[in-house]
Amino acid sequence: SAADALGNFEAGGSGRLEINNGQWGGFADFFFISLGNEANVGPRGNIPIEVGVDNFLWQVAGTYRVVNKEDFNLDLLAGARGYSLDVDVDIKPFTGPAGVLQFPGKFASRGISFTDPILGAKAAWKLSDKWGFDLYGDIGGFGAGSDFTYRLGAGLGYSISESVSVRGGYTVIDFDYRQGSGLGEIEYDTTMYGPTLGVGFKF
User: Fold this and answer.
1) Residue 68 in this model has a pLDDT that exceeds 80
2) For the chain, what percent of residues have pLDDT higher than 70?
3) Which of 92, 14, 103 shows the shortest CA–CA distance to 51?
4) Residue closest to 179 by CA, chosen among 136, 127, 143
5) I need a surface site. Which of 7, 100, 123, 165 has the fewest CB within 10 A?
6) What is the structure's pLDDT at 6?
7) Does residue 183 or residue 178 have the better pLDDT?
8) Among 91, 93, 103, which residue's Cα sits nearest to residue 51?
9) Using an 8 Å Cβ cutoff, are 125 and 72 in contact?
10) Mean pLDDT in the chain?
11) What is the C-alpha separation between 10 and 149, in angstroms, rounded?
12) Three-class SS string for the chain?
């Protein structure tokens, strides 16, 4: 089926850089994921198609700490999130039933990109000398790029040393995007979600 051509994970990655002085701070995130596959589609399964989808997301935000306690802190944040999507569809040459029709093949590529303002907050709890828990949430878009976007996340961290930690969590990012009208309208409503695992270094 056509879904088979989109179902294979090819590459992906993410990263974060964060700075703060105790009250003011900021961070930058990026996410990349590439999907693609080859499949035979159509009523007779004789149409070879190759589909590739590249997603890239970046985010920058400034933060201000409104609660700063020994075992809990709360930051408000404001910034921007950008998103780009590139889709490549390559229909290979094929021959119809009984060799009656011959299709020479066709390649098509389409991409969209936009940037949204975002507002949100993040909170962190110190559970012990080694363990910590954090929550994150933001909303944005407001028609500037997408109609609406949000991001939610939660994570559990463990400090290996004063400078190295590991963290596992879960993240959800959603976009509702529309551009143009009529036959030229582009509508892209998507939700990306999944577990995260990372290593942090403090300097």
Assistant:
1) yes
2) 91
3) 92
4) 143
5) 100
6) 45
7) 178
8) 91
9) yes
10) 87
11) 26
12) CHHHHHCCEEEEEEEEEEEECCCEEEEEEEEEEEEEEEEEECCCCCEEEEEEEEEEEEEEEEEEEEEECCCEEEEEEEEEEEEEEEEEEEECCEECHHHCCEECCEEEEEEEEEEEEEEEEEEEEECCCCEEEEEEEEEEECCCCCCEEEEEEEEEEEECCCCEEEEEEEEEEEEEEEECCHHHCEEEEEEEEEEEEEEEECC
What distance in Å separates the CA atoms of residue 35 and residue 40, rounded to the nearest whole number? 17
What pLDDT score does 5 carry?
39
CA dist., res. 157 & res. 136, Å (int): 14
What distance lies between CA 102 and its chain's CA centroid? 40
- For residue 52, give both structure tokens: 């590739």
Give the residue-averaged pLDDT of 12-40.
88
Strands, sheet with 72-91, edge to edge from the N-terminal-most edge strand: 9-20, 24-41, 47-68, 72-91, 106-126, 131-141, 148-159, 164-179, 186-201
- What b-and-e string marks burial along 37-67, b requiring 16 or more CB atoms within 10 Å of the CB? bebebeeeeebbbebbbbbebebebebeeee
